[in-house]
Amino acid sequence: MPTERPKPGEYNPYYDRYISLIPGGDIVATLASELPKTVALLTSHGEEGELRYGPDKWSVKEVVGHMSDTERIMTYRALRIARNDRTPMAGFEQDDYIRGGPYAELQLADLVEEFKSVRAATLTFFSNLRAEDWTRRGIANGDEISVRALAYMTNPQGKVLRKRGTARGDRVMRSAPGWCFTKN
What we know:
The protein is mainly alpha-helical. 54% of the residues lie in helices and 4% in strands. The protein has helices spanning 16-19, 27-43, 60-82, 94-100, 108-127, 131-134, 147-153, 157-164, 167-175, and strands spanning 137-140, 143-146. A hairpin with a 2-residue loop joins strand 1 and strand 2 (143-146). Helix 2 (27-43) runs antiparallel to helix 5 and helix 3 (60-82) packs parallel to helix 5. 33% of the residues are buried.
């Protein structure tokens, strides 16, 4: 399995704001080692799943649902490209997914279990790719992207780390200790 990070040109430069923050060059190992840390963060406050840092912001449960949805979508895109499917794939509107999701009716613990299951499937998929699969490219959301870049984009850590260093992210952490997730 290639341990190289995706190079510029393998993805839309917009996503470098997330990809650049992910440590190391072995994304499968990073995804595996991040799981217990993410689960610990998500379960450290019991069932505070309705917590929001603002009236128009996502709840913790919605953020966890978004993490699972996004990981599924990025892995699905990687699957299609790795299998040499040349059909362009549409984007997805994250806010529509949140509005259409069942998050309010579910317990935070159930959403965390779902995330763990999604991550296990993601790890199995990426662990079984051949070297040539990682560098294949396709079109998703109107942009050319490699399987390797999609693997890095499945990882919510890049988004979380980016927010920790911003004023908005710092406000979230102060208003809800332990929670550092924001909508964008």
